[in-house]
Design goal:
Length: about 375
């Protein structure tokens, strides 16, 4: 039985759920030492998991909840040195970092002779999200790592070249389906048309919401009874604000952070999900949609063609409202979203499971 450490100090989003899924699988055959933020939004679920499994040891660290808190608390380097000492003392076989965060990177800087395995989600930061400090901390974390994990085959070469890291020391996994939701998702697989589609996720420039709104105007010419739900936190551009005003009678907009226990409710009454990315690496929203039994219309950027199959969704040209409009209408005209949704649920719960991904990860860790 291996001793595996997991260091994740983020608070919210998909990564806390991914970390819970990975932990749930690893503890079946390993002792897992978790190092988590006190402020992680699903902390109670980790403690629930610990109650039923003695292989799980949880260490909680008080992080920050604001930019000012981050600045002041980050000045205390003893905090990171002490955390590194606690990790070192356990004598882990591997320390896995499911997503790099500022403080995790600072702790890693103080670690010595520790086998570190780091997951790289976005080798190149997205448009509008450049962060010089984070890029430097990512670089330093990679240099301290003995192996890396990426979530698409396509980006193994990119990561290898970008960080001058041995290609054979990089493992390609898939983002797993969320068993977190699957017990309820069977009821989300629809047979009747709801005339609703969903854009879900953080509002950011690279997500391409403006293109979706332009496409939706065109869709309404042919399908005037259709509704679009826009759900996520972030700021709209001036152009997006204008389009939202024009289309307000056909939109439902929820512009705030969505808590984990709310997520399912936004997927219940929609026919499929639309993701009009201008750029991407991979997408957690795709796997969330699959776990909810929903097909996806998505732009063909990054490695999304590894996640969207002919049987689970439709790929369209990026930054092209005409092509996106056609993709949405084709899904309705042939009622493809019904079978594709069922296929998506199958891949999330049978093929691209975290159980399968963790098995592949452990085989990779034990190689050379």
């Amino acid at each position: 039985m291996k001793k595996i450490g997991i260091l994740y100090l983020g608070r919210r989003g998909a990564a806390p759920v991914d970390t819970l899924e990975i932990t749930s699988e690893l503890i079946k055959e390993n002792t897992v030492y978790l190092f988590l933020s006190k402020r992680i939004e699903n902390l109670d679920k980790f403690f629930d998991l610990q109650k039923s499994n003695s292989n799980l040891k949880i260490n909680v660290m008080d992080t920050y909840s604001s930019k000012i808190g981050f600045m002041f608390k980050s000045l205390n380097l003893f905090r990171f040195l002490n955390s590194a000492h606690r990790i070192q003392k356990i004598q882990l076989d591997y320390l896995y970092i499911p997503m790099i965060t500022y403080w995790a990177a600072l702790i890693v800087a103080f670690l010595k002779e520790q086998k570190i395995v780091t997951a790289i989600h976005d080798p190149v930061m997205h448009t509008g999200e450049k962060d010089f400090l984070f890029e430097k901390l990512t670089y330093l974390t990679v240099k301290k790592s003995s192996k890396l994990v990426v979530f698409s085959e396509k980006f193994k070469k990119t990561v290898s070249e970008l960080y001058n890291f041995p290609y054979e020391k990089i493992c390609s996994l898939k983002l797993g389906g969320y068993s977190y939701y699957e017990s309820k998702a069977k009821n989300n697989i629809i047979e009747n048309e709801n005339n609703r589609i969903l854009f879900f996720g953080r509002i950011s420039k690279y997500k391409g919401l403006e293109i979706l709104l332009e496409a939706f105007k065109k869709v309404l010419i042919f399908k005037p009874d259709l509704k679009l739900k826009i759900v996520g936190n972030g700021s709209f551009s001036d152009r997006e604000e204008k389009l939202i005003y024009e289309l307000q009678n056909h939109l439902e907009v929820v512009n705030r952070w969505i808590k984990d226990d709310e997520v399912e409710s936004f997927f219940l009454d929609v026919d499929f999900i639309v993701l009009p990315y201008l750029e991407a690496t991979q997408s957690g929203v795709i796997m969330l949609s699959y776990a909810m039994g929903k097909a996806v219309v998505c732009t063909n950027v990054g490695a999304l063609d590894e996640q969207i199959l002919d049987t689970t969704g439709v790929l369209v040209s990026p930054n092209n409202s005409e092509d996106l409009c056609k993709g949405i209408l084709d899904m309705y005209n042939n009622r493809e979203y019904i079978q594709k949704g069922k296929n998506a649920f199958y891949f999330a719960t049978k093929e691209w499971t975290w159980q399968n991904q963790v098995k592949k990860l452990m085989q990779f860790l034990q190689e050379n």
